[in-house]
Amino acid sequence: MKKEQLLDLYHQMVLIRRVEERGAELYQAGKIGGFMHLYIGQEAVSTGLIAAREPRDRVITAYRDHGVAINCGIAVNEVMAELLGKATGMSKGKGGSMHMASVEKNFWGGHAIVGGHLPIASGLALGDQYAKNDNVTICMFGDGATNIGYFHEALNLAKAWGLRVLWVCENNKYGMGTSVERASAVADIQQKAEGYSMKHSQVDGMDVLKVYEAAKEAIDYVRTESQPYLLEVMTYRYRGHSMGDPERYRKQEEVKKWQENDPIGIFRKHLLEKKTVPTKGLDEIEAQVEQEVNQAVEFAETSPEPTMEDLFANIYVE
Amino acid sequence: MAKITMREAISQALMEEMDRDPAVFIIGEEVGVWGGTYAVTKGFYDKYGPDRVKDTPIAENAIIGAAIGAAMVGQRPIAELMTINFAFSAMDYVVNQAPKLHYMFGGQFQVPMVIRAVGGGGRQLGATHSQTPDAIFAHFPGLKVVSPGTPEDAKGLLKTAIRSNDPVLFIEHATMYQVRGDVPDGEYLIPIGESKVQREGKDATIVTYCKGLELSMKAAEELSKEGIEVEIVDLRTLRPLDMGPVIESFKKTNRAVIVEEGWKSYGVGAEVTSRIYEEAFDYIDAPIIRVAQKEVPLPYNRTLEQAALPQPPDIVAAVKEVLK
Prior knowledge:
The complex is a heterodimer. By secondary structure, chain A is of the alpha/beta class. Helices cover about 45% and strands about 10% of the residues of chain A. Chain A contains twelve helices and eight strands. Chain A is globular, with a radius of gyration of 19 Å. By secondary structure, chain B is α/β, with parallel strands linked by helices. Chain B folds into two domains: about 1-185, Thiamin diphosphate (ThDP)-binding fold, Pyr/PP domains (Rossmann fold, 3-Layer(aba) Sandwich), CATH 3.40.50; about 195-320, Rossmann fold (3-Layer(aba) Sandwich), CATH 3.40.50. Chain B contains twelve helices and 14 strands. A seven-stranded mixed sheet of chain B has the order 3-2-4-5-7-6-12, with helices on both faces. In chain B, α1 (about 5-20) runs parallel beside α7 (about 150-165), α3 (about 60-70) packs parallel to α4 and α8 (about 210-225) packs across α12 (about 310-320). Chains A and B meet through β2, α5 and α6 of A and α3, α4 and α5 of B.
């Protein structure tokens, strides 16, 4: 990977984290409502994954979607404005934290029903198969989604019909507050692909370059073989499931242990050790991110509210 | 004009639209090799091939979910639910995803999809396969719900539904595929969201749709023998609901009976009655009466099943009641 691309990945990861840290503050201040699920700790997953796609490859994910939105190239202003429910958000303030998307950036949402977007992902790939192109659909979901019926119907259909879907399970160890071991008959989640005779592998999700390499390989397989693939990415979220999580299900020592293995920290160390860039270069990126986020918060706060006409807009196309 | 069956009308609509637009394809259980469990897509597999007539696993979430996804990226799938009762297995997609994606993402996504679903009782299929749950689906903004009562309307409305850029639930009745009716020659479209007077009269207004139209027409014949002429307004679309012709007729007759095959509680009749109260209160000369299914899960036994379903004599009695 070229230096510019490496620094771009670093920029994206730091940007996601700072957007979410500011988001948490704004939530506490009552400026963001509803449910908000932070991606902090998991930044390497979507950053590495989406860096490996071609622009024509589609991305769809669950409700922990701010990072994915940023990686797909949605302007941070629009992300922040959507969090604040403003008319300038990409979903015009009608979707909120869990419903970010951009057709232009080939990002198909942001879906809030656990597992509900998996059959839709099969459908995106079906649309491409019907159009006889070789686009790949990258579908991200949590470990919790592998226990619900949608997962099985979607994977079965994808394999039975040879749909080009890269299924990416972000295993962050807990579905809300219930651990994988307590919720899933198979703790080694990638094994579930075996039931569908689907190729699968597992990768360390705290290392962005490892995720990138694994994703490249998997996307290449999906595209050339016209077969789905399940990639399990081992990761961890530092914050609660959502903003209102009492976190009774884990000890703070566990969180601390994972934080020692921080994805941004690991990548920073890597870039410095490989002498890709001096410390100063990374500090500059961080300062730039700080500016971008400040600017985005100001943009969101000064943006107009949706109007009463917007209330009734877009119920139907016609 | 040609006299054809409801089955032929629906089949013609599907074929004409598939011939017209290559983005249109059919997806569902036994739609292909089998020819459709109600034989609506008989011959389609041979004509269009497996890419456009897609036999699916028996997995309703996969069927409707995948149809939504394909629609989002520009195809125009027609998903078939073998019975509307199976929509409950895919309820998340029918009411919680398809109708919301356009709105929730600020207009970015479109879901140009038709869900064809066969509903209704009268075939001794037992409680889980015989329901008329149309009102449930009509409850949700963002979904269009169409349920025709004649071959002419079925063909024209289905063609419009396929061309619509919104998700449309198209409800057919399991006992009406052999119903015959005149259909215009050549291509025609009927707009979604327009009620229609199917029989003119002056004494009372019957508001109904789908199977209720067949039953009401029979009742109207009986009443006519006694010198009572009812006007029948066919809703045809449950959402968006067009009350215009209903109110117009009611202002003329001042009396109404609402006929539906589903349960009375929280049903189509409840909605229409309320709307008449809201929009034409000053014209009411008698309490509005609803004729609907008895409040029981539909039984298998033929006598019991028929007793639970609304019948023409129930409608005749109701009309006489509002004319008292």
